[in-house]
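User: Just a sanity check before I run the rest of the batch. Below are the structure tokens for the first item. I only need the designed sequence back.
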């Protein structure tokens, strides 16, 4: 679980530029993106219980206070806030062998103090043999002096000690391996065993981390400190992943047309899911982030096409608000007409429907009521609001929803089953009033909620690979379990790329042999 010391109740309303991606769990919690890493590495199923901010803790405490639950007592940080923090930890620890609790921020921050005090008390309550403190510190390399500095580590451990926490293991963030004498020096000054000073060296791929830590003996040490027995470690699957990372057979190039593209953390899970898809085919992934707004040109000006050329696949990811929509529509039209594999996620599915309605069905003013509330053809609209669901609290369709997949569709081929469950985070939906004209013009609705209310997947049968989904499959992809939608999209993109390159070569050779032509 992760504790975030900031005052927002959850990251749901924070700007993607400030906070990075909002990771959504099955139960519909909008959480810190670190929970995505936790699920990708451990395969644990996380929920809203696994992410707490100071804001959410206080919200709960103040609600209790207003209800009179504290029976007139003075409500204070210690013990009331710290008790809530401890209760939150105990709740997730109920059915597991070990609960790993991360406290975000930096030692010494005012905001993190109640969390530090709570974990200090946990050790008092549970005993040394049932608790373990792992502290992440910095060991910078000073280039001018050509030496590693242990001072920042010493200082932050001192700071921790002043609030009553003696770390057991130090994960030292560094860009090179720490020699034995440096480790001994840190161990001596920080009161830990030599073997507990761990090199946490920068790695080129985050999926190397389990191997690097295993190599440093972190797992063995953790088990020893917690007095636990475990089966022999089996790292073969991670070794295979890392082998693939460093030995790709070829490269696949994907163009992502979105609006928060200059800040990669806002699409963290998306990027990882594409990496998983590429690794499944033993490919190196090359992502090009294309700012959607930058594609928008004057009517009839096709110069944007140059920006879209050369990709093996085009993807439009999730997003909110009007900015960049016209650029996304141009990219989708390009992918549809030129038969470039296309994958639209959430907003990327909605824009695919708008593009199809405008340019194939002929409804020139088709739009989503999110971008043009007065549109005569709201192909995408706020269905929940119309049904009065909005009043019930949450404004978004969040978390896991079941989806029924139609037989004989690309979606069915991809998943290999007819019932799936995927995670959502959006307000707007496909408007079924347009189902008839859209399907008559060649679009296929391949997935809907079992009651038929919400459209979940669309595709174009006369295109080699054009698929859109209303949900966010990227949240469920893992390196050891690549999501089928990403695996097949990257596969189709690579196949298209190989064919395109081969065709280009033949044309070049043909031109070269044509008498009288100098153009090659
Ligand atoms: N803005 C769209 C909606 O709210 C899409 C959201 C998304 O892509 N996550 O429905």
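Assistant: Here's the designed sequence for the first item:
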């Amino acid at each position: 679980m992760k504790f975030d010391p900031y005052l927002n109740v959850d990251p749901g309303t924070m700007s993607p530029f400030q906070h990075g991606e909002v990771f959504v769990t099955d139960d519909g919690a909008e959480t810190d993106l670190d929970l995505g890493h936790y699920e990708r590495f451990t395969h644990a199923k996380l929920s809203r219980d696994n992410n707490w901010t100071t804001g959410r803790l206080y919200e709960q405490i103040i609600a209790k206070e207003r209800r009179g639950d504290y029976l007139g007592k003075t409500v204070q940080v210690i013990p009331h806030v710290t008790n809530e923090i401890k209760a939150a930890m105990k709740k997730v620890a109920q059915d597991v062998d070990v609960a790993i609790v991360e406290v975000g921020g930096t030692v010494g921050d005012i905001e993190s103090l109640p969390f530090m005090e709570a974990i200090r008390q946990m050790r008092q309550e549970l005993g040394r043999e049932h608790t373990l403190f792992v502290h992440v510190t910095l060991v910078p390399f000073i280039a001018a002096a050509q030496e590693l500095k242990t001072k920042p580590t010493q200082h932050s451990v001192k700071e921790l000690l002043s609030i009553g926490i003696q770390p057991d293991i130090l994960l030292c963030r560094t860009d090179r391996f720490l020699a034995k004498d440096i480790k001994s020096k840190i161990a001596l000054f920080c009161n830990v065993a030599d073997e507990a000073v761990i090199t946490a060296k920068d790695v080129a791929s985050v999926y190397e981390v389990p191997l690097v830590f295993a190599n440093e003996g972190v797992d063995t040490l953790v088990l020893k400190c917690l007095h636990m027995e475990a089966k022999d470690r089996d790292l073969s699957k991670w070794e295979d992943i890392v082998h693939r990372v460093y030995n790709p057979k070829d490269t696949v190039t994907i163009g992502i047309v979105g609006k928060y593209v200059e800040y990669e953390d806002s699409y963290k899970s998306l990027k990882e899911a594409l990496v998983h898809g590429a690794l499944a085919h033993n490919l190196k992934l090359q992502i090009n982030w294309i700012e959607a707004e930058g594609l928008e040109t004057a009517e009839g000006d096709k110069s944007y096409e140059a920006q879209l050329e050369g990709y093996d696949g085009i993807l439009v990811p999730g997003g909110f608000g009007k900015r960049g929509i016209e650029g996304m529509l141009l990219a989708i039209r390009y992918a549809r007409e030129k038969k470039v594999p296309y994958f639209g996620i959430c907003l990327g599915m909605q824009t695919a429907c708008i593009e199809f309605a405008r340019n194939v069905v002929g409804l020139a003013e088709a739009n989503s009521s999110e971008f043009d509330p007065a549109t005569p053809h709201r192909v995408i609209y706020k269905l929940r609001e119309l049904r009065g669901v909005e009043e019930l609290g949450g404004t978004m369709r969040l978390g896991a929803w079941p989806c029924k997949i139609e037989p004989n569709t690309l979606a069915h081929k991809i998943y290999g089953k007819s019932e799936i469950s995927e995670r959502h985070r959006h307000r707007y939906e496909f408007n079924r009033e347009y189902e008839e004209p859209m399907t008559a013009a060649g679009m296929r609705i391949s997935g809907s909620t079992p009651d038929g209310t919400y459209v979940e997947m669309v595709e174009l049968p006369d295109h080699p690979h054009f698929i859109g989904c209303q949900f966010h499959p990227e949240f469920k992809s893992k390196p050891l379990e690549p999501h089928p939608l990403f695996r097949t999209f990257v596969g189709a993109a690579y196949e298209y790329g190989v064919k395109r390159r081969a065709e280009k070569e033949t044309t070049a050779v043909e031109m070269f042999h044509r008498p009288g032509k100098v153009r090659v």
